[in-house]
Structure formats: structure tokens, C-alpha cells
Automatic annotation (TrEMBL):
Gene: ispD
Function as written in the Swiss-Prot or TrEMBL entry: Catalyzes the formation of 4-diphosphocytidyl-2-C-methyl-D-erythritol from CTP and 2-C-methyl-D-erythritol 4-phosphate (MEP).
Cited PROSITE patterns: ADH_SHORT
EC class: transferase
Catalytic activity: 2-C-methyl-D-erythritol 4-phosphate + CTP + H(+) = 4-CDP-2-C-methyl-D-erythritol + diphosphate
Protein name: 2-C-methyl-D-erythritol 4-phosphate cytidylyltransferase
Claim: Transferase is one of the keywords in the record: yes
Gene3D superfamilies per record: NAD(P)-binding Rossmann-like Domain, Spore Coat Polysaccharide Biosynthesis Protein SpsA, Chain A
Family designation: Belongs to the IspD/TarI cytidylyltransferase family. IspD subfamily.
UniProt source species: Micromonospora matsumotoense
Positions marked as site (Positions MEP for the nucleophilic attack): 175, 234
Length: 502
């Protein structure tokens, strides 16, 4: 069990004996039926961002080094559905998927029985809070070294009023002292067991909140509050589904950086095909990957006459790489163009070129790449830009195609999961490339990201286990971007009017 033993300076253990839990167990409460959403299935089985909500939630605890074991309390009649999700995702920490009780009281008691005796850290978390962060989990577990009960909450942005049976205000509490409760709620096992034992003697006992049980039946027990997050929403109403889906879309994943030796171990002998590999990000990625021993095949309109929007060209490019090396591990599509101007004033030829290169091209590359990537359990890597989150005037088609690539990434990662093929999307901020200079002219260096930085992040994603993710690449504060190498005059003439550069 990996835990950080640091505590707050003023924290004082409640008992003289040091707390030495045998393990830390996350109990995922998935007993909801989805009635408020108007669904025919429990809401935790509803898909958001390509996966059932409960799968997103379990993945957080599976990845948390502080968590040793996960127990799922599932809605009646749907235990098999939850078990299937666990098995398919390969969650190794999930030890039990059992049926929850008819009430919250009964569900918590079932969870305590499943955990068993002994000194254990227990975290209770709503399955329909899929955006809980690793930071929240870590701080909850760490707080249990000093406190026996821990809650998660955020400040209330609204004024809270108290009303009577006639809906008239009776009190307005001071907002600065109010918090909105979230989960997880964490306990030393002895504390939560004792609270429920005492509650059994109360004929009016009805739990809706485990910290509330401790507060009521173990008065005087300090309950530490950990800062939650606005993103840690509970999917309860129809609008929550849309909010959660958008939050997942906007969430930026991060790929781990490796040592030089590890890059060589990961990339030596792999085959990488890059469409749009002559300049800028694609070129830098090719050079970087070659330096670590990868076999790289860059294709582009200017250098090899390869048009990514033409099926025959893509098919021939992939065949060339495969015949040379006998494998294709990664396919990268950096090709993309940007034409500025009002949509109503754009000619049909220009509109067609933007749509074909920016969207149809990646679709063709994806379709043609799948048979090769299935053999190697490889990855398709696409590129979007910050404009995908909101359409922008003078960039209507560009913004639209970039949003489409994000949706394509998330859809294909779900479709191709059964083949073991990963699909991700890089979202770089404005990047210093020769083609960006052609489209926008000279720009202040300090406002641009280096193409090499985007290439490095791209490489990190290619050798990671990520899939279905949009990975933001941002320039560190105060970091200047190097001036990009300029193409020759002949090469300049072959460049499109703009490229996807973030």
C-alpha cells in the first residue's frame, strides 16, 4: 500500500495508538436506478465519452496508488452488467461486484460486511461522479492518518436560504461557512462501523450521507473536510449528462515522460507512418523518433506527392512502409490546412479542399490503417486545435473540422478498443512552423509554442497506454519558441495557404 504519511502541522491523532491500516478500500456505490434521468437502465451504465459512467469512475481508483482494493455495490439485477464492464476493462483491483441494499443504510452495511474485519481505510464514492480527481483521492487517504472521518466539499457559489412549509424564508445562513458536499467520504473502518452500530438502535434512522451518520451518532468526532472540485459533478439530471460529456471532452490528459534509454527501448524497431511529415510538427516528430531507433516513413503532398484525402495515395503509402519493415505500429496525421475568410465569400473549390484535407483525409487514413494497427496493437494519432471548443468567425470550416476530429478520436477509440488499437488527439496551442508563418506572417516568438515541444509530446502519447484522449500541449510560462527553419523558395510555393498549428 503506497501512502503519503505527511499531515497538516496542526493535526493531532485522536487516539494514542498510531493508525496502521492493513489496506485501503474504495467502495463504489452504484445502486441508483436512473429514474430521474428517465432511463431504462441504471444511470451508472449510461455511456459518456465513449464509456459507461461507472467505468470512468472505476478507472480513477484503479490508477490511484493509494487504493489497494475496489468493491462495487451495484443496483439490483445489474450485477452481471457491472462485472462485464470490470472484466472487459481489466480492472485488477476490483475484488467484488455485489448487489447493493434497498436503502442507503443497507448498502453501507453490505459494503462493511464485504470489506470484512480489521483496521482498514474505507472510501465511499458515488459511481455517478466519474470526474473525481486523483488529487482528491490522495488527499482523502492522507487525511486518514490524522482524522477518523473525512468529507469532500466545495464552497457554495449561491446564497442558501432556509424555508418553512409555506415556502417562506426563515433563515439565510452565512455563505462563507457553507459547503456543498461531494464524495468520496473516507473513514477508518472502526469509526464508520461504530457509527452504524449505534444507529441501529434508532428506529428513525435513515442514512443519506455517511459523514452525517458519524456526526449524529459519534458526536465530538472531528470530520476533516477536503477541497473537492467543480468538475466532480454527480450525474443525476438530464443536463448533467451533457455537462459531464463536455467536461470529459475538455479534460486534458498527460502522457508520462521517459528517460532517453526508455525511449530507445520503446521505439527501436517500431514503424511510424506520418502523413504531413515534411515540415513543422510532422518533420520534427519524424526526426525525433528516428533518433530513438524507430523506422519512420513521412509522406506529404510536397515531398512524396501523397494526398491524404485520396484513398489510393494513403493505401500506397501504408503498403510502402509495411513492405519495407513488415509492420506498422503508429500512424500519425498532421496534415491539415487553414483558409481564413467568411464562409459566404469562400469559393466551392476552397471549401472542398479544406473539408477534404482536414476531415476526409484523417477518416481515410483511419480506415486504411486499421488492418495494420490491429496486427501490432498500435495507435492512430490525430491533431486538433483549441478552436475545436467553439466555432470562430473567419475560421468556420477549420473550427468545424477540428471539432469533428475530436469526436472521431473518441468514437474510434471506443470502436477499436476490442482490437487493442488506441486512438488519441493532440491539441497544441499556436505553434511556430513555416506554414503558420505563411498563413499569419511574423508573430512574436514568446506567443508561440515550439514545434519540437509538440513533437515530443506526440512521441510520449504514441508510446503511452492512453486512448480516446485529447492531450493539450502548452508552452511553459516565459518559455520562448525558437524561430522555425524556413523552407526554400521552391518549397514555399508548394505550401498550402495555412496549416493546422494549434
Amino acid at each position: 500500500m503506497t501512502q503519503d504519511h505527511t499531515t497538516a502541522p496542526d493535526a493531532t491523532p485522536e487516539t494514542p495508538a498510531p493508525w496502521r491500516p492493513s489496506r485501503t478500500v474504495a467502495v463504489v456505490l452504484a445502486g441508483g436506478t436512473g429514474t430521474r434521468l428517465g432511463l431504462g437502465i441504471p444511470k451508472q451504465l449510461l455511456k459518456i465519452a465513449g464509456k459507461p459512467i461507472i467505468e470512468h469512475t472505476l478507472a480513477v481508483f484503479e490508477a490511484a496508488p493509494e487504493i489497494d482494493e475496489i468493491i462495487v455495490l451495484m443496483a439490483t439485477g445489474h450485477v452481471a452488467d457491472a462485472q462485464q464492464i470490470v472484466d472487459k476493462a481489466g480492472f485488477r483491483k476490483v475484488s467484488k461486484v455485489i448487489e447493493g441494499g434497498e436503502t442507503r443504510n443497507a448498502t453501507t452495511r453490505a459494503a462493511l460486511d464485504a470489506v470484512g474485519e480489521g483496521d482498514v481505510n474505507i472510501l465511499f464514492h458515488d459511481a455517478v461522479r466519474p470526474l473525481v480527481s486523483a488529487r482528491i483521492v490522495r488527499e482523502c487517504v492522507n487525511a486518514l492518518w490524522s482524522y477518523t472521518a473525512v468529507d469532500v466539499a466545495i464552497p457554495s457559489a449561491d446564497t442558501i436560504i432556509q424555508v418553512d412549509e409555506d415556502e417562506c424564508i426563515t433563515d439565510i445562513p452565512v455563505r462563507s461557512r457553507l459547503r456543498r458536499g461531494q464524495t468520496p467520504q473516507a473513514f477508518r473502518s472502526g469509526t464508520i462501523r461504530e457509527a452504524y452500530r449505534r444507529a441501529e438502535g434508532d428506529p428513525d434512522f435513515a442514512a443519506t450521507d455517511d459523514c452525517g451518520v458519524v456526526l449524529r451518532y459519534l458526536p465530538g468526532t472531528p470530520i476533516k473536510v477536503i477541497d473537492g472540485s467543480d468538475e466532480n459533478i454527480k450525474v443525476t439530471h438530464p443536463v448533467d449528462v451533457h455537462l459531464a460529456d463536455k467536461l470529459f471532452q475538455l479534460a486534458a490528459a498527460q502522457a508520462p515522460r521517459l528517460s532517453h534509454r526508455s525511449y530507445t527501448e520503446e521505439l527501436a524497431g517500431r514503424t511510424i507512418v506520418i502523413f504531413g511529415g515534411s515540415y513543422g510538427i510532422g518533420h520534427d516528430l519524424a526526426e525525433l523518433a528516428r533518433g530513438y531507433g524507430a523506422q519512420v516513413f513521412p509522406f506529404s503532398r510536397s515531398s512524396t506527392g501523397t494526398h491524404v484525402e485520396q484513398t489510393g495515395d494513403v493505401e500506397a503509402a501504408l503498403k510502402t512502409a509495411f513492405e519495407a519493415t513488415g509492420r506498422i505500429d503508429h500512424v500519425v496525421v498532421t496534415a491539415g490546412i487553414l483558409e481564413k475568410g467568411a464562409l459566404a465569400e469562400m469559393d466551392e473549390e476552397t471549401m472542398d479542399r479544406v473539408l477534404q484535407v482536414n476531415f476526409v483525409g484523417p477518416v481515410i487514413a483511419a480506415r486504411q490503417s486499421l488492418p495494420y494497427l490491429q496486427q501490432t496493437k498500435g495507435q492512430l494519432l490525430l491533431y486538433t486545435s483549441s478552436s475545436y471548443t467553439r466555432g470562430r468567425a473567419q475560421y468556420a470550416l477549420y473550427s468545424s473540422t477540428k471539432a469533428a476530429l475530436v469526436n472521431l478520436t473518441q468514437a474510434l477509440s471506443d470502436e477499436w478498443a476490442e482490437y487493442g488499437v488506441r486512438v488519441n488527439c493532440i491539441n497544441p496551442e499556436r505553434t511556430a512552423t513555416p506554414m503558420r508563418t505563411k498563413a499569419f506572417g511574423e508573430e512574436p516568438e514568446h506567443t508561440l509554442l515550439a514545434a519540437e515541444a509538440v513533437a515530443q509530446s506526440s512521441l510520449d502519447v504514441l508510446i503511452s497506454d492512453l486512448t480516446g484522449q485529447v492531450i493539450d500541449v502548452r508552452r511553459a510560462p516565459g518559455e520562448p519558441a525558437p524561430v522555425p527553419a524556413q523552407p526554400t523558395a521552391a518549397e514555399q510555393d508548394r505550401l498550402p495557404s495555412g496549416v493546422d498549428a494549434g
